[in-house]
Amino acid sequence: MRAMGNSIIETTVHPDYIASVYAHFERMHTLKDGEYDSYDFIAVKKTGEFLPITCRTAVFKRNPDGTCAQYVGVTIPT
Prior knowledge:
Elements: H1 7-12, H2 18-28, E1 37-44, E2 50-62, E3 68-77
Antiparallel strand pairs: 1-2, 2-3
């Protein structure tokens, strides 16, 4: 996934939801300890089919400036 860089978002997320997925990554930097962010999007499977997804993520590790360095999350088909 890392080798794909940002293109993994464009490849696996329905175009109508790409902006909201990137907005989620920005919100991760504002979460306090113990808080989580939840968001929904439509994934695009290899077959071209759509799959509704709900994600809930929390900060796992912080940078020295307090922003999110790593996060942990759960992704659930809805």
